[in-house]
Amino acid sequence: MSVAEALNGALAPVTAGARAKVQIAGVSKSYDGKLALRRVDLELSENSFTCLLGPSGCGKSTLLNMIAGFVPPTTGQILVDGRAVSGAGADRGVVFQEYALFPWRTALANVEFGPLMRRRSAAERRETARRYLKLVGLEAHRDKYPNELSGGMKQRVAIARALANAPSVLLMDEPFGALDAQTREILQEELLRIWQQERKTVVFVTHSISEAIFLGDHIVVMATQPGAIKEVIEVTLPHPRDRSSPQFVQMERRIKLLVREEVQKLGVI
Amino acid sequence: MTAAVENWTAAAPVSAARDREKRVAMLLRAASLALFFAIWYAVAILNSQVFKVFNPLLLPAPHTVLFAGVELVRSGELQRDILASMSRVIQGFLLAAVLGVALGTAVGRSRRLEYLVEPTIELLRPIPPLAFLPMMVLWFGIGETSKVAFIAYAAFFPIFTTTLEGIKYVDPLLIRAASSLGASRRDIFRYVVLPAALPSIITGLRLGFGLSFFVIVAAEFIAADSGLGYLINDARTFFLVANMLLGAAIIGAIGFGFNIVLRRLEGRLLKWRNNVRS
Prior knowledge:
The complex is a heterodimer. Chain A has helices at residues 3-9, 60-68, 107-111, 113-117, 122-135, 151-163, 181-198, 209-215, 246-265, and strands at residues 22-31, 34-44, 49-53, 75-80, 83-84, 92-95, 169-173, 201-206, 218-223, 228-234. By secondary structure, chain A is an alpha/beta fold.
């Protein structure tokens, strides 16, 4: 599927025939009576790539955690494939900023975890895990433990682990936030390659404007105090996107202004 | 693609320096033991031959202790005492290990159970187990039961506490990761909580084993007709200082040996933790 096709359906209004992959309807979240995220309505179409962008405290991770089923919304509900989310599930793979690899399992055994939970045979688990480690370029390191891997390699394992479970939605919480700039750019390119190959509905949390424009077909710019959706921007630039192209730079400038307004609301930081 | 995967090559000069450091460490460790025996020997010999400051019977030289050992082996007493102590330690320790890990795990998984159990444990824990020894002798007699029960009691606390901590403080992110990969509650316990808690459980077992050794001698002082503690106490009655020192040395050697075995086991079970290449 071409990227252009993937873009077309994204965030289209729900009609009788085409149901959104992820529907977020009237969702808000309060912690101890304090509003963290104000009424969010959002629909993500199948195979779309949505970036949630905003400064810390805008509720972007909270929203992601609610889609993942880690925390329940205070009001409203989230539907994935038309079913209400009531907890974590294998249909929604999650990639965390801190990798969250099982340190006692080798790279291969980490990737095998999902198939193991589905009680696949040892041979099948191994086969699947190898295929996905290969997809992220780590087949040579399959017998290493996480503490023997660099940050970039750990995140590759984490991505392979999420994908090996064949989720239809991939939730990524600032996955490249802890990596150095070079590694981050390489992994962004690889993520796009994998996304085009594997066809997932991706929700990607980031505070990097350039990362959001480079990756997403839709950018949800978030507001702060309380967290909310400020604006949804569609990115129609063809892949691969050139970060120095005039359109890229122009969009970057526009979003920067939007985000700056929200940062200023936070006061001195 | 592959260029993106960082290369890991150990720098050769670094490993050479590390090897040298290792040799120095070995040498110093050997020197530590040599120095200890040399001083012991010197004090004992100088006192008995030259200065005569105190009764030479009070501090026999290392070789005298060795001869005493040979004598005790010949009569079969030493083997019998080692066997008696070891069998008590192992029985008591195993009992404590089973109870400590099982209860620690159960309490770590249920907050209500923790509220129910914790105050009692915290009340008993600061009491030195030795305070209960005379009572245990009254309850369980002077046979094997009282010793095994006493060791089990003493070793239970560190095993229970470290197991509980290990189970309680599993990184919640790992649990989230597992649940988003389709793990059920039972899966999470088996594949995440237990392996994550294993390092602290093993630490607890090592502490518990050390404590078992620590208390067996005292238990055998009070009421026993065999065991290394009995050997020492019996030697005291007859003023056989060499035998007393021998008993202590044997306990030291056994504890030392077991610690090495347990550390090896720990290294193997926790391979993932030790494999860091700097």
